[in-house]
Specification:
The structure is a single chain. By secondary structure, the protein is α/β, with parallel strands linked by helices. The protein has a single domain, classed as Rossmann fold (3-Layer(aba) Sandwich). 51% of the residues lie in helices and 14% in strands. The chain has nine helices and seven strands. It has a seven-stranded parallel beta sheet with strand order 3-2-1-4-5-6-7, sandwiched between helices. Helix 6 packs across helix 9 and helix 8 packs across helix 9. It binds NADP nicotinamide-adenine-dinucleotide phosphate. NADP nicotinamide-adenine-dinucleotide phosphate (NAP) binds next to helix 1.
Length: 259
């Protein structure tokens, strides 16, 4: 149970964020729900009893991050956990992407996540025990065609998590990494869903991801990868990437048909 614990969650009204919200609320947590759309956040808050905090803020702006900091700073109970979940996806050939698309993926998924973590760190350091949890992806460990810049952002957040965990190891702040595999949410368009069906790539429901997330935060693990065979591929890719190169090469004609 998380009674008396306060979780700050970005991307709260998204597919995975809203299910994590419901699961944490069921366990008695207090939530600070952050998103771009107040109506969606209000509806989510109502669905979990209406007692929680809402911040309409864009994490990719200084103003948005300042708003989040000021709100969290004045909370009497402080904050115990920051969950960096907000993110945007990509399913496009690298050569077709324009500057703004590339910059937005790196900005939201990586730079802004890092900047928000830094902004809230003094509050987290003032607590007897606190946590930063970064939502990564299986694609933060395996480069996949059509996701080049998304992979760059998620590989980056995995590296950031590992380094910050080691830097803060002598403080009360733990830093961990939670990596879902493909999940049925709005981040994946129809082409991704159809491609995954043809490739035989399983997609989780966000409810399953939230269940695993609760299991993860109740464990003392610093990183957590969802799904077989994905967990195995992550390991193989780290020691023998040429095997994964060959396997993805076989899939490439199918992938390119959907791109
Ligand atoms: N679904 C998958 O296959 C999958 C797999 C592995 C990892 N993940 C990761 O899981 C996390 C959640 O994704 P999801 O699948 O739940 O996607 P989603 O349904 O699209 O949710 C993403 C959330 O992030 C919010 N967001 C985007 N830009 C933001 C910004 N600048 N400031 C504040 N909030 C912003 C979105 O708000 P709006 O809805 O208002 O735009 C939305 O609530 C992401 O980090 C994603 O990379 C997803």
């Amino acid at each position: 149970m998380f009674t008396n614990k306060t979780f700050v969650l970005t991307g709260a009204s998204g597919g995975i964020g809203s299910e994590i919200t419901k699961s944490l609320a069921e366990q008695g947590a207090t939530l600070v729900l952050i998103g771009l759309n107040r109506n969606e956040l209000d509806q989510l808050n109502q669905s979990i009893g209406g007692q929680h905090h809402i911040i309409e803020a864009d994490i990719s702006t200084t103003e948005g991050r300042d708003t989040i900091f000021q709100y969290c700073q004045q909370l009497n109970q402080g904050i115990d956990t920051l969950i960096n979940n907000a993110g945007i996806g990509q399913f496009s050939l690298f050569q077709d992407m324009d500057d703004d698309h590339i910059a937005a993926i790196i900005n939201i998924n990586l730079t802004s996540t890092i900047l928000l973590s830094q902004k809230l760190l003094p509050i987290l350091l003032s607590r007897p025990e606190s946590h930063i949890i970064n939502i990564g992806s299986i694609l933060g460990s395996i480069g996949f065609p059509g996701s080049s810049v998304y992979c760059a952002s998620k590989f980056g957040i995995r590296g950031f998590t590992e380094a910050l965990r080691r830097e803060l190891a002598d403080t009360a702040v733990s830093v961990s990494y939670f990596a879902p595999r493909a999940t049925n949410t709005a981040i994946n368009n129809e082409s991704v869903i159809a491609m995954n069906r043809e490739l035989g790539t399983q997609m989780d429901n966000p409810e399953q991801v939230a269940k695993q997330f609760i299991r993860f935060i109740n464990s003392s693990q610093s990183h957590y990868y969802l799904g077989w065979p994905e967990k195995l591929f992550v390991r193989i890719n780290s020691v023998l990437p040429s095997i994964v190169d060959k396997s993805i090469l076989k899939q490439l004609p199918i992938i390119k048909r959907y791109l």
